[in-house]
């Protein structure tokens, strides 16, 4: 299961649309490693001033890796994080998360990161099982 959903949030979802802040808070509480990683990358983006920042450090445990995969593989979770932080997230392998400024989505940096070439160049033997 990706998220630990409180009975109140589940009841709200059964009634209709869910408040974005409540959903993002559920993600924050359920996937703390993923939340910390995305938060850190966004903070790096804010402090660096460039078009993007990324995380190249593999997760310390398989459980952490699983959180990151669940967060970024889910369209709802990923776009919820993007709306919350005001960025576009991109993902390679099982750990390389990048945050791009919205105005950098049409940049060479973004296109290189999300390209097949970029994916292939980011491979290594130790990442084959992730």
TrEMBL record:
It comes from the Bacteria. NCBIfam families: SCO5389_fam (NF040488). This is SCO5389 family protein. It comes from Micromonospora zhanjiangensis.
